[in-house]
Design goal:
Length: 304
């Protein structure tokens, strides 16, 4: 594909590597909010996103109000993945929407949401989460999606309409047909027909024509790797970034009894927190020429 026009608008060359160092799942639990606060103060991360339906959302919103320069978006949430720590939709309690599992929470995984949820109900829920963030005093810089659940042909138009209406950039990629097929297959485990992919390609062309900033790549530090190797793995991941804008995902959290009780991957989350507090990593990113921006830079392009 042609170079991302956003690079030039931000003053970068077409072949530069630009990363948004992004903390997912802020507000999922107390440990995630405290980790983001520490990392934002340290200054290596550049963005994060808050899970509005989750129990610690109010604390995350309080942090956002008290730190208006913090680059925080809405981590639009349609799934609730843990066994005994759950959350559900803000907009409805109606099982007919397909948003609820048999326990009355969001489904654990993206696939049943994509199979069962009504697109209109999904769009209403996304809107409800953004409005809840605004009502709580946040000024979101962007919107992305938890577990990639909206990366489905029947949800993406509603997702994009909702986010653009609020003048926020979205986690939307500039991909060709093969690239979208790969993303869709990874998210749902199934192939998508050519018409669905064609519709998504039309959407991306339309968005870019409107001047909506799009991303080139998404990369996430794995949550099933050796936490003892986190610094080395992270250094390598940055070294391997490709030209363009990459949404670089980490899941930072402090080590607490609550976190350990919630998720078996707590060690990698703690490792992300500890790794992105290292001056050594900051120097490595600078030395290899990776430029770091936040989503506010992209949002400013939309509202300029």
């Amino acid at each position: 594909m042609n170079p991302n026009p956003v690079l030039k608008k931000l003053g970068f060359a077409d072949n530069e590597r630009v990363a948004i160092i992004h903390v997912d799942d802020v507000g999922m639990c107390q440990a995630s909010v405290e980790a983001f606060a520490d990392l934002w103060d340290f200054g290596l991360i550049s963005s994060g996103a808050v899970m509005v339906p989750c129990p610690w959302f109010l604390q995350a919103a309080k942090f956002a109000r008290e730190h208006p320069k913090a680059d925080l978006g809405v981590h639009l949430t349609l799934t609730s993945e843990w066994d005994t720590y759950r959350w559900g939709p803000l907009s409805t309690r109606d099982p007919q929407t397909g948003l609820l599992d048999e326990e009355g929470y969001f489904h654990h995984l993206a696939q049943p949401v994509q199979e069962l949820a009504d697109p209109a109900a999904v769009q209403l829920e996304l809107e409800a989460q953004i409005k809840r963030a605004l009502t709580a005093g946040m000024h979101p810089t962007h919107a992305d999606t938890h577990m990639g659940t909206v990366a489905h042909a029947k949800f993406m138009l509603g997702y994009l309409q909702t986010v653009i209406q609020h003048q926020m950039p979205s986690m939307m990629l500039r991909l060709d047909e093969a690239g979208w097929q790969q993303v869709m297959s990874e998210q749902s485990g199934a192939d998508f027909d050519a018409q669905a992919i064609a519709t998504i390609l039309e959407m991306t062309d339309m968005l870019e024509g409107m001047g909506v900033p799009l991303l080139d790549h998404i990369f996430g530090m794995p949550l099933d790797s050796d936490p003892a190797q986190r610094l080395d793995d992270t250094r390598q991941a940055f070294a391997e970034l490709q030209p363009g804008i990459t949404h670089f995902i980490i899941h930072a959290a402090k080590d607490t009894p609550e976190l350990r009780a919630i998720t078996p991957d707590w060690r990698c989350r703690v490792a992300d927190y500890e790794t992105f507090l290292k001056e050594e990593l900051r120097q490595h990113i600078q030395n290899i020429g990776v430029q770091v921006i936040g989503y506010r830079a992209l949002q400013n392009l939309m509202i300029a």
